[in-house]
Write a structure and sequence with these properties.
By secondary structure, the chain is α/β, with parallel strands linked by helices. Helices cover 46% and strands 12% of the residues. A five-stranded mixed β-sheet has the order 3-2-1-4-5.
């Protein structure tokens, strides 16, 4: 049986250059949360999201020196473990920078997109889904442990939908979620910018230059956006 690990990281920002300053996870028998000194200043725009300040981590050790790394590495790299996160590729990238590579993972963002066949959901961020699905839970938004508690409830909803839709049991649903998470999502509709609300397959016919420009922005930017890069390359046949 797979061991499910719901986890989240808080970081100094959302680019490849950034560093983690909090890890939280929850399993069937353990709840863990800890702050770490990232070794660089936490910018105010990051603190405005997760409310972790430089003063809060001033006397903390870095993750690699904290004594937690060995335990977390063993847990996440166990072949029977499944790490679950929302927008998992980002959190996994943060872990890989610390020499931790989860054996299996589920991205609830990708699974939510996959299940929204008719694209009725306006946004897919964790807190939006929390209130859209009326997940009743006491949890502070953007705190790593608070997000983990919401994540656990979201995972349960998504797993049940796959079980009901595909007629499979819990274990088979988990395998399906792992498979969905293993590759970027193919997006179909713009939900931002000058083509907001339009199908990408229509925009490629009338404004190919915009897609070319957007792809260049995504490739050259500091953010991590595998799904959009994959989608744009698909429609541009690159």
């Amino acid at each position: 049986m797979k061991k499910i690990i719901f986890f989240d990281t808080e970081t100094t920002g959302n680019t490849e250059k950034d560093v983690l300053c909090q890890i939280a996870y929850k399993t069937s028998d353990e709840t863990f949360s800890a702050l770490y000194n990232p070794g660089i200043k936490i910018p105010p725009e990051a603190s405005a999201v997760h409310h972790i300040t430089n003063k809060m981590v001033a006397d903390k050790k870095t993750f690699s020196l904290s004594g937690d790394k060995e335990k977390i590495k063993e847990l996440f790299e166990n072949e029977n473990s499944v790490a679950v996160a929302h927008n998992a590729p980002f959190d996994i990238m943060m872990f890989k920078k610390e020499d931790i590579t989860p054996s299996n993972f589920i991205c609830t963002l990708r699974v939510a997109r996959y299940l929204d066949k008719e694209e009725k959901i306006e946004r897919y961020n964790l807190q939006y889904l929390r209130y859209l699905l009326e997940i009743e839970i006491e949890a502070q938004a953007h705190d790593a442990l608070g997000d983990v508690l919401v994540l656990e409830q979201l995972f349960t909803r998504l797993q049940k939908k796959i079980m009901d839709t595909d007629g499979v049991d819990e274990d088979e649903a988990i395998e399906k979620m792992i498979e969905i998470s293993s590759h970027p999502s193919l997006l179909h509709t713009f939900k931002f910018g000058k083509h907001n609300g339009k199908r990408i397959e229509e925009v490629i016919k009338t404004d190919r230059g915009y897609l070319e420009w957007l792809l260049a922005q995504k490739l050259n930017g500091e953010g991590i956006d595998e799904d959009w890069i994959y989608t744009l390359k698909h429609y541009l046949e690159k």
